[in-house]
Amino acid sequence: MRILNLFLFCFGCLFFISPAFGQQPDSTAGSEEEDYSAYGSAEESVKYCTQKVRFLSPTKLISVGFEAQMPFKASFPLEEQFKDKNQIPDRNQSVTFFGGARWAANAPVISNNKFILNVGASYYESNIRFKEDESVNNFFEPQLKSALSRGLRTMGINVTAFKPLDDKHFLIGSLISDFNGNFGWNTMQDAFPMPTWTFAVLYGWKRNDNTMLAFGATQTWRGGEKLYVPLLMYNKTFNDRWGLEILAPARAHVRYNFSASSLLLLGYEIEGNSYRLFRGQENFESGSGGGRFLEIRRSEIKPRIIFEQKLMGFIWLSAQVGYRYNFKFGITEDRSSERGDFLYRGNFGNPLYGAISINLVSP
Known about the structure:
There is one protein chain. With 363 residues, this protein is mainly beta. 9% of the residues lie in helices and 53% in strands. The chain has a 14-stranded antiparallel β-barrel.
């Protein structure tokens, strides 16, 4: 239970520390750990610039939701160099369910017109169910199927800082630690995952209450492995209806505001990470094996439409539908394996998906 104790300790600190500073919440939530657009208010008249443009989508302080994909076909053929060693057929299996709960919470520990420091925690899960069909039970090794059937989970903690330099320029920094694996609440001590680290730094300009532009760089795992890529943040409101919300290459959306309490986003997001796969007591027969762990390098691209609607007060509903494109689902011996050096390369169908959440947003 070491990881559970660590996670609960960090999450508890989040809510015990925040009141001590007596600040109003104003932050981002969830796997949106790189959403640097939601601090402060564009209406405030202060010496330093804020980090919000007019009509931006609301900042989520607490979010509780669920995501699920439509059924699809999957197979896990061995890479070419292993096929002579292990004669395992390349057969498809029906995945009848892929999805699970998602929740996140964020709170500021320091918030004033000169500096904002935000701390958050999140939990995502992807439960996997296969169709029970004895005729295709050997589409990959039974141990691998059993390991994946335990599901994939992410527990994360994150810190984001916003530092205005004057009324036009600002810096943003972010640090995220994610614990990813097929661990369960009763098996954490057996499958303690090593964390993946994401960090980013941006320097930007706020021209006015309608335009923010920033450039930077990040170490990210969204591609399923550690990558260093440049960042572009561009938040633009053209008028009372239309705008852009971009943090490329991670995500980009066109925004349409029906009113102050209803909006639509059309765009995409890239999601991914590296997951520790606990094999169980028996090793897999393939590869150079010998340990009890493998790594899943997972990345997917999600073109999507998001509808957000105010329900009452600061409670908002968010619903999205989209298309999940499997960019990568490879299984390696360990996290340090060479890029593309997979034991198995998962061939997934690309289904439609949907998600819904209830959110407490910033005033």
